[in-house]
């Protein structure tokens, strides 16, 4: 009888201890949840005090382009402001766009971005999907084939030192490094020994994309990626039955509207060699476009997502933003020059003559951009820059 009573007492004590330990663990969990402090007022206080150059370094687009993007996305139903029915206030549109821009502009972790903007990881994931989808809805408007092909061909011919008549653009593919996908990972493992998806694009002389195709596995050859793209079917029609052309490298097949170099088997004539040299010089505009894209949106240097569909949406959204920024006449030298420096480091300091020529072109363009910005500043503030009165004070 005594043994039974002792067992009962021990059982009661054990249950009390278990309950107390559960209460303590719940208290610790609640206290941990409450003690996780995130950055306060970064969007509300810090960002508005950024100078334009600091804003551009942090989000990789200018404040003017940011305002334009917000205006374009404001009419999208996915980002429309809902009717307030109590609870937490909805995040402003500008903050949603800024969160996604910071994600695309850097390799910062999702947790770090969420902490910076004082939101949860789940909230970040939700608005990343909505904003990226809304940007992709702008794809037909900002990534479209030009209509005035004559003017495009003239500008393309004036680019560089060599002449190519009736050329409207250049085509190439670029590997976007990704995390090993969930489905068919071997198909995305390319010859460069990393997982990737292929971004095929055609660009004009101003580095803007006029046609893109995203999503082919990295193991595919550029020729196969081109064969499975819609451009291979409609390219002849877009180029008006061979009246205009685009330039490609040796990976592509020669077509009426697609010009490729002569295959070098060691017996090229002088004319064929020069033709290949001139074509390569002109075709490098697409390489510069890719350098600018990846230099501005550094998320494309490695996309740590395993869902291929989501990856493709992010890449195409970056292409849309790339064109929006170019249409806003932004200074591009700081983005693309960093890519050239990285290439120079990889080559041991031995840049090709074409790359050095491109660097000089960037320096000249950057100088012209600064002069244009200064003139615009003077025109906007004429009441501060009264040069006539200043001249009379100096020379009475």
UniProtKB/TrEMBL annotation:
Signal peptide: none annotated. Residues 171-323 form the DDE Tnp4 domain. InterPro entries: HARBI1-like, HARBI1_dom. It comes from the Eukaryota. Its cofactor is a divalent metal cation. The keyword Transferase does not apply. It holds the Pfam family DDE_Tnp_4. Belongs to the HARBI1 family. This is DDE Tnp4 domain-containing protein. It comes from Mytilus edulis (Blue mussel). The lineage of its organism: Eukaryota, Metazoa, Spiralia, Lophotrochozoa, Mollusca.
């Amino acid at each position: 009888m005594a043994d039974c009573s002792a067992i009962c007492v021990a059982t009661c004590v054990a249950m009390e201890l278990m309950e107390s330990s559960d209460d303590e663990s719940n208290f610790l969990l609640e206290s941990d949840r409450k003690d996780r402090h995130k950055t306060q007022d970064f969007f509300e206080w810090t960002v508005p005090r950024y100078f334009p150059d600091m804003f551009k370094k942090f989000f990789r687009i200018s404040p003017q382009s940011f305002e334009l993007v917000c205006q374009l996305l404001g009419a999208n139903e996915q980002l429309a402001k809902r009717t307030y029915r109590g609870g937490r206030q909805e995040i402003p549109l500008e903050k949603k766009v800024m969160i996604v821009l910071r994600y695309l502009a850097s390799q910062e972790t999702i947790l770090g971005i969420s902490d910076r903007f004082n939101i949860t990881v789940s909230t970040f994931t939700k608005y990343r999907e909505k904003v990226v989808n809304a940007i992709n809805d702008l794809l037909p408007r900002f990534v479209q084939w030009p209509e005035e092909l004559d003017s495009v061909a003239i500008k393309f011919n004036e680019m560089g030192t060599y002449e190519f008549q009736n050329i409207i653009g250049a085509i190439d593919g670029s590997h976007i490094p990704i995390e090993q996908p969930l489905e068919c990972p071997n198909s995305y493992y390319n010859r460069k020994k990393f997982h990737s998806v292929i971004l095929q694009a055609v660009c004009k002389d101003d580095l803007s994309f006029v046609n893109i195709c995203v999503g082919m596995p990295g193991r595919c050859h550029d020729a196969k990626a081109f064969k499975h793209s819609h451009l291979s079917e409609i390219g002849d029609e877009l180029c008006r039955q061979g009246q205009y052309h685009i330039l490609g490298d040796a990976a592509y097949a020669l077509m009426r509207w697609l010009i490729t170099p002569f295959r070098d088997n060691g017996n090229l004539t002088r004319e064929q060699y020069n033709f290949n040299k001139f074509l390569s010089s002109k075709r490098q505009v697409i390489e510069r476009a890719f350098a600018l894209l990846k230099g501005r949106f550094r998320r494309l240097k490695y996309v740590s997502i395993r869902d291929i569909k989501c990856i493709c949406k992010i890449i195409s959204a970056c292409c849309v933003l790339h064109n929006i920024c170019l249409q806003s006449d932004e200074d591009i030298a700081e983005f693309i020059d960093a890519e050239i420096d990285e290439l120079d480091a990889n080559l041991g300091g031995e840049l090709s003559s074409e790359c050095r020529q491109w660097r000089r072109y960037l320096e000249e363009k950057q100088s012209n951009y600064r002069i244009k910005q200064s003139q615009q500043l003077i025109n906007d503030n004429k009441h501060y820059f009264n040069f006539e009165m200043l001249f009379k004070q100096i020379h009475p």
